[in-house]
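Pipeline run #58 for the internal structure catalog. This entry was flagged by the ingest filter as a single-chain record with no existing model, so it goes straight to prediction. Upstream metadata was stripped on purpose; only the residue string is passed forward. Reviewer on rotation: M.T. Logging verbosity set to normal.
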Amino acid sequence: MHLYHQGRIAASMVDPDYSDVQFIRGFILYKLYTYHYWVRPKGKPLGHTSVKNIPKGYPRLDLRGKVEAEIDSLRKMGLVSTFKHAGDAELHVSDVLDAKCIEQGLPICNFYAEAVGLPALDRRLMPIE
C-alpha cells in the first residue's frame, strides 16, 4: 500500500485499519504538526486551516466524515483548538502547542505515521530520520 503525504510516497507493508479512531486522530495530528498549524494555549494561532481541509488526503473517501467528528474529540481532549476565522464563518483548527498536549498527542500521531510508513515525529515535531 502506498500513501501520498506532503509530496512524498510512503510505503506500508500492511493495509492499516482506516476506520480505527486512533488512526484517524493520528492522521489529523500528523497533518497539523507537519504543516505547522499551531496555537499556543490561550494565544493567537501561529498557523491554522479550515476544518473542511483536514479530511482532504484521507485515504478512504467514505470515512472522511469521521475525520471531522474526531477533530471534535481531539478538541475535547485539549489537543486541538477550533475557532471561527475572522475572514469567514468557517470553523478553523490548530494544534495546541503546549508540552503536555504534545506529550499526549505524539503517541497518537506516531501510531498513524508508523501505520503508513511515514517518519515518526520527535518532541520538537520534527521527523525522526
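catalog note: Confidence is low (pLDDT under 50) at residues 1-9.
catalog note: The chain has three helices and six strands.
status: ready for reviewer M.T.
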